[in-house]
UniProtKB/TrEMBL annotation:
One of its GO terms (molecular function) is alkanesulfonate monooxygenase activity. GO terms for biological process: alkanesulfonate catabolic process. It comes from the Bacteria. It comes from Actinomadura viridis. Residues 17-294 form the Luciferase-like domain. This is Alkanesulfonate monooxygenase SsuD/methylene tetrahydromethanopterin reductase-like flavin-dependent oxidoreductase (Luciferase family). Keywords: Flavoprotein, FMN, Monooxygenase, Oxidoreductase. Pfam families: Bac_luciferase.
Amino acid sequence: MRLGLYLNLYGDRADRSSLKDAVEQARLAEEAGFEWIVLGERHLHRPGYHEILTSLTWLAAHTDRIGLATAGIVAPLYHPVVLAETLAHLDVLSGGRVTAGFVLGYRPEEFALYGVAPAERVARFEECLTILTRLWTEAEVTYEGRFTTVREAFLSPRPAQSPRPRLWNGGRVPAVLERTARMCDGWTTSFNELDAHLPGKIAEYLAHPRGPGTLGSEVIVCREGYCATTSQDARKALEEPLLGLYGAYTDWKRTSADASRYAQGWDDITARSVIGSPAQCAERLGHYAAMGADGVVLRVQPPGMSQADALRTIENFGALLSG
């Protein structure tokens, strides 16, 4: 099983300039055999949140081999050419390590911040990925879209990977699964997608026809994770900060269709997570592999967890990978 480490980008005044803890975790994950470090995106976030693309560039400069993935960039908020150029250059600078994961977005506040109408988000998403993919793979692009028009456009340099970096897309509704199969190379689940729903959604995603130029149909399951000597040790380290995060999400996601999934207790969360002793975590990873997952992205450090506890669990998951 390939593992990704979802890094905590919540900022505070002491860490905003350096991402010191994230760099230390990324380096350890690289040594431990993780496939990717994975970043998310937030805007209008009072506690502070590191910007996704510059953070990914910083982490690229402080690692050597590990993949650099996003899950995900809110594509409708971006000018497609700027996004294509930035990600292409990051792929070049990192030696071909980028996986670009996207989401539609859902918060009205974020769309208002960027001057984008929420009703346009699907059309903007598809136009953005169409232009981005063509700029990455074609010598010259002319495209007249609803929101963006380019004529005789090209990128120099194009991405290091051939034919291009892989594209992921996240979401849970049927339209997202169809769109992912048609335009992207992998589907990333929600962290709070119930295990009972995953087999059906994986089957639905894999049943959709692949679009021209797509590079496969990866299934990437995103899960809360913590591996400790015993399940009691895992709960002691994780419970308070994780429930605090879910409490904050209840307000953060109040405009999201899945907001109610965050008003849950420890047992609800652990039932769909990779949390416990090494044996329990190995069993859980095998459970997702049997469902058809090609990789699992683990969020191991909610805000409020110490760096020492986060590093300890990265080492423990690394021992599972090497064992």
